[in-house]
Design a protein that fits this description.
The protein is an alpha+beta fold. The chain is 20% helix and 29% strand. The chain has 8 helices and 19 strands. The strands form 4 sheets. The protein has a 6-stranded mixed β-sheet, with helices on both faces. A 6-stranded antiparallel beta barrel has the order 14-17-16-15-18-19. Strands 5-6-7-4-8 form a 5-stranded antiparallel β-sheet, covered by helices on one side. Strand 16 and strand 17 form a beta hairpin. Helix 1 crosses helix 6. The radius of gyration is 21 Å and the shape is globular.
């Protein structure tokens, strides 16, 4: 489903170049004239990224956490005030429908997700309320900005806070909204969820204080290098959580807790964890930058002319060159010569997850059989 998002007011900033028409990032800036410099700033200093095209919703009601816990993959029933988490909504077969970030703060759960999936997620949540004291509602009056880089520590006075929060923690901002620390795409990553009518003022204040304007190109390049998936780009209709590295509780920076009550799709998660292996792994690919053409999201990844995977996000990184994420069959060795669409590709060996750990269920079965 194509969703039209109003252009961000930050696109009026000098040098702003909008994302490609029809892309998920068309409503915000892709870069501000120096994409590689913007990436360096996000790694070495401080950069601010307009992500105001994210869909934001909030859930109120006394049972908001215990109710959300029963219908999603993360353990959120006991989140304390200011705690955040990543979470998934799965279908009956355990395939990922929605990925979202949530924050419990001041009597409400705040959720942000991809614009194209937000309305469907909200509809699902509303459908599942039944008799619970939980009220999900779209929060069109709030928007997301991201701050990246070690220099964010020097912006606390501008933000109006005493100190930066820890990972997956949030602190309220004066005048409304909050600052949330995330574990990716860099070691120093923060999201500001702010009233939308403060968006331009916050941007002006933070850039005046030293944060370099950076486009979604920067965010995406660093995200891909960190091997963090973006739903709808790096996933397809068959993706299960194990394939996309979403397994783990809050402490593991995951989105699927393996020791919690029932939720839709749990059977697949448990079966793969205890007895099987995921059919595919999300891997980082290095692409041949000398080719005249570039592959596109959704292209086949092939080995010897045989399809072995699906290409996700393709982006140019300031140090690594052209890179991409791809879902590759688990059985493909890391040194296999690949083609991603029209170009040669190679698997980054450091991105290959360990695949030699025995599943708990297999160990138990073998023990019963005397092996």
């Amino acid at each position: 489903m194509s969703v039209v998002v109003a252009p961000s007011p930050i696109l009026s900033v000098s040098g702003a170049v909008a994302g490609a028409a029809g892309s998920p990032d068309a409503a915000v800036a892709w870069h501000y004239g120096d994409p590689f410099g913007e990436q360096r700033a996000a790694v070495d200093r401080a950069a601010i990224v307009d992500r105001s095209h994210r869909f934001v919703l909030r859930i109120t009601g006394a049972e908001r956490l215990t109710w959300l816990h029963t219908i999603s993959s993360q353990h959120v029933a006991a989140l304390d005030d200011g705690q955040s988490a990543e979470n998934l909504d799965l279908d009956l077969n355990g395939r990922v429908l929605h990925h979202f970030v949530l924050t419990e703060l001041d009597g409400a759960v705040w959720i942000d997700t991809e614009a194209e999936r937000g309305a469907d997620l909200l509809a699902f949540l509303r459908k599942m309320v039944f008799w619970a004291d939980a009220q999900p509602a779209e929060a069109t009056d709030h928007a997301v900005l991201s701050l990246l880089g070690p220099g964010v520590a020097e912006l606390t006075e501008t933000l109006g806070i005493a100190e930066l929060p820890g990972v997956y923690r949030a602190t309220p901002l004066p005048g409304g909204g909050f600052l949330r620390r995330m574990p990716w795409p860099t070691a120093d990553s923060f999201d500001l969820v702010v009233p939308r009518d403060q968006l331009a003022d916050r941007w002006a204040q933070l850039t005046a204080a030293g944060a370099a304007p950076a486009g979604m190109w920067t965010f995406e390049a660093l995200r891909v290098a960190a091997v963090r998936p973006r739903i709808g780009l790096d996933t397809d209709e068959r993706t299960i959580p194990h394939e996309a590295r979403w397994i783990g509780g809050v402490a593991e920076h995951g989105a699927v807790h393996l020791d919690k009550g029932c939720y839709r799709g749990q059977e697949t998660v448990a079966r793969v964890h205890n007895l099987g292996k995921p059919p595919r792994h999300l891997l980082l690919l290095h692409l041949d930058g000398s080719a005249d053409e570039r592959p596109a999201t959704g292209d086949d990844v092939t080995a010897g002319g045989r399809a072995v995977g699906r290409l996700g996000t393709v982006v140019d990184h300031y140090e690594l060159g052209p890179i991409a994420l791809a879902l590759i069959k688990r059985t493909v060795p890391a040194d296999t010569a690949l083609a991603a669409g029209p170009v040669a590709a190679a698997i980054d060996p450091d991105s290959v997850p360990a695949d030699d750990v025995a599943q708990p269920g297999r160990v138990a079965v073998d023990r019963l059989r005397g092996r």
